[in-house]
Every structure is written in C-alpha cells, then in structure tokens.
Amino acid sequence: MKKSPQALIIDDEPQVGNFIAEVLGSNGWNVSQARDAGRAFEMLAEQQWLLIFCDVVLGGIDGYAVLRHFSEKQSEARFVLMTGQGSAAGALDATAFGAYDYLLKPFADTDILHIADAVLEQHKIRSRTADTDLRNSVKGYTSDIPLIGKSPKFVECLKMVGRVAVTNHPVLITGESGTGKEVVARAVHRRSPRADKPFVGINCGAISAELIESELFGHARGAFTGADRERVGLWEEANGGTIFLDEITETSQMFQVKLLRALQEGEIRRVGSNQTLKLDVRVIAASNRNVKEEVAAGRFRKDLMYRLNAFTLHLPPLRDRAEDIPLLAEYFAGLARPLEMPPVKFSAAALKMLESYDWEGNIRELENAVLYAASLCEHVIYPEHLPDYVRFGGAEISENSPAASAESGEGDVLKIPLGNDGKWLSLAEVEEKYVARVLAHTGGNKQAAARLLRIDPKTLSRVIERSNN
C-alpha cells in the first residue's frame, strides 16, 4: 500500500490550520497539526515530514527559529512560512534562511495545492544525496536594506534573491532605471557566504570605453600616458567578495571579450602587464535594457550573456507594484524629517495621486517626489504639496480639481516659465529649461535623462551643447 505524504501545520490560529489541513487532506496528504513551537519540536521526533507550513508569529518563539531547528534535524522537509504582516523583504529573509516558500495571509486553496504538488514532484525525482545543504549557509545576518513591498511580483522576485544568494553563480538583474537593481545586488551579497568580503560597484555606462578596462582590471606603470604608477583595479579590490557591473550592456564589444575571459578563467591581467592574477570574484551584472534584444542587435555578445545569466532576476517597474507605493512613500517620508520631529502622514487624496501616477523614473522618482512634498508640508502631505507633474500627470481630473480650474483658465497647470523680462520664452528656450530640470532629477545622468525624455542620448547631447553656447 502506498504511503501518504506527511505534512505538518504549525499555527496557533485553528481556522488557518484547519483550512490547510482540509485542503491537503482532500488531496491525499496525511496531515498533523501543532498549535505552538513546543509541540512542533516534540512532533519532530515522531515523523519524517515532507512538507511543513509554519506561522511566522508563534508567541514566544518565531517561525524562523522553528525553521532553523527543523532544517538541522530534517533537511529533506520543505518548509513554508506564513504571515499576516508580510512584505517582500520577509520573503527574501525566509528563502535565505532556507524556507521553500513564503505565503501572505489570506491565501487560497490553489496556493496550497501549487506548493504541495511541486514538493511532491521534486520528491519523486530527487535522491537523498542530491539535496544540498546550501539552505543553511546563511544565518544570523541583519537585514538593513530597505527592500519594501508586498506586491506578488516583488515578493516572487525576492524569493529568488534569497535562493540565489547562497550560491556562487553569476547573477543578471534586469529592470527599468530606478527599480532598485543595486539595492537587490547588495541584498544578494549580504545574504551570501561572501557577506564579510568587499562589495564593489561600478556603473559601466558612466565610464568611457577607453578607461573602463583600466578602472576594472587596473594598469601597470607606464601602460599609457599619465600612468605614472601601478594601479589596482576594482576587480582586484573585490577579491573574495562581489563586484556589481551596472549597465553592463553599455560596454564595448572589445571590453566584453576581456570580461568574458575574466569570468571563464577566473583571472585578469592589468592593462600593460603580462602578469596574470587569479582572483575569486562573484559577478552580479545589471541592465535596464532587454539583453536578448541587445544580443540580436549585435551590441552585446551572446556568449557573455549566457555566462552572466546563470540566474536572472527581473525587477518589476513601480507601475506594476501599485500596492507597494504607499509603503515606499511612508518610508521616504520618514527619511525627510529628523527623528525628533513628528512623522509625516499622507492624506487619502495624496496617496491616490501617488498610486495613479505612471512613475517612469520608478522608485527613485517616487523618492524625489515624496521628499519634495515632505519639505513643504507641516504634518500631513496633501495633494497641493506634491510636485505638479504628479498632481496633473497621473490622477483623474474631476470638475472641482485644481487641474480642471487650471485648464479653464484659472490657475497655472503647466507653469510655463517666463523670461527675466516677463515675456514668453521661445520653444527652444522652454526645451532647454525642461531638459535642465530632468537632468537635475537624474543627478546629471545623461542616459537616464534621455530615457525619461524618450530621446536618443545623442539628441540630448545636442540640446545640452546648444544651451551651453
């Protein structure tokens, strides 16, 4: 007779435990329940469990402690943490600590069955010796990176972050500008066995093709004019740790060949030197472009893409994470005030405007908007405190809204700037002022400004050159 798979539910809420037990039981599982961690520890010795559902909050002990205890005793068991106060950062913590999955309450029966079916299938095809102990390699770290959100897409992304962190493979992070690619790269590093080693970042798009090789690999004395001394590159500085190559698709084909060799051989050669250096560096690369499209267009090497994307993490744009906007806005508003001042709050109307805006600049643009509003308000952010482009660019305009009155001639919806003499500016002058505003918003990053303006970087350079003459 075929033995039923064993499942254990650890939750002090009977309705939750009974719901999961009913779903699993009706699908062939043999289910037991424990109302607290103490009873769960007793049951650990009674049975070999294949699947465990455990609440994060269990009175005097949390679900992470239960997870660690079970992982040490029954590494074959697949552990699912559940919480009613969850976030994407919680998903990252859960998977980094070794959880198989992470569920936000309330969840549906289909969520339970999806996990149960996947665990059963894995159990059929894996041998006991193939199971890895990597799940227990990251313990006791402190999460000090603001990975904020609870949207399903972001939660799924950070589950993957937790899983890849404990490996030593290259990671490719994709997503639009401002989605937090470097934040996620640092999260991977800090949850990896390399956490006590250097994390070194470089924006490949901000360095000329002539200088990037020297910046990354270093150079020997006399390698080129001005190289009056030997220089250690960033790759060497990252030895034992992680190097983050942001905007990797902005590099030249010639440099990509040398980067590919460094990845394949685990060694580099400083510019102007014949000496080869063996280095242990984990590479995390990022791009705001579609890498496959860059390969198809002949701008990025296919073999380098395959070398970099052992794991690919895609960060969703903020417009696909509307439920995360209030959480992020509250966090940024908290940064805007000194600790001794009362926290800033948002009116419902202001939050609605933030949620309805498109946020082409993503989290970075949201942060700037919130800091701007927080600097104008006293204790509560109302719509009038938000930047005009948020007030009139994303929210629906009602008959009584400020935007509606502005459109009817009462107000200043676009606030077209006038010249010093009070006269209207020419279209070229307005263009120059608007470009200057966008450049200020991106911190002088021309590539990011060009993407926000939806123009070619060369066109942007011509506008800047014209305004400087």
Provide structural commentary.
This protein has helices at 14-25, 37-44, 63-73, 88-96, 109-125, 152-165, 181-190, 212-217, 234-237, 253-265, 291-296, 302-308, 325-336, 348-356, 362-376, 388-393, 402-407, 427-441, 446-453, 457-468; strands at residues 6-10, 30-34, 51-55, 57-58, 61-62, 78-83, 101-104, 171-174, 199-203, 218-219, 231-232, 242-246, 267-269, 276-278, 282-287, 311-314, 345-346, 380-381. The strands form 6 sheets. It has a 5-stranded parallel β-sheet, with helices on both faces. Strands 9-12-15-8-16 form a 5-stranded parallel β-sheet. It has 20 helices and 18 strands. The chain starts with 5 loop residues before the first strand and ends with a helix. It is globular, with a radius of gyration of 27 Å. Mean pLDDT is 82; it is low at 125-145 and 394-416. It is 43% helix and 14% strand. It is an alpha/beta fold and 469 residues long.
How would the blueprint of this fold be written?
Elements: E1 6-10, H1 14-25, E2 30-34, H2 37-44, E3 51-55, E4 57-58, E5 61-62, H3 63-73, E6 78-83, H4 88-96, E7 101-104, H5 109-125, H6 152-165, E8 171-174, H7 181-190, E9 199-203, H8 212-217, E10 218-219, E11 231-232, H9 234-237, E12 242-246, H10 253-265, E13 267-269, E14 276-278, E15 282-287, H11 291-296, H12 302-308, E16 311-314, H13 325-336, E17 345-346, H14 348-356, H15 362-376, E18 380-381, H16 388-393, H17 402-407, H18 427-441, H19 446-453, H20 457-468
Parallel strand pairs: 1-2, 1-3, 3-6, 6-7, 8-15, 8-16, 9-12, 12-15, 17-18
Antiparallel strand pairs: 4-5, 10-11, 13-14
Helix pairs in contact: 1-5, 2-3, 4-6, 6-7, 10-12, 13-15, 18-19, 18-20, 19-20
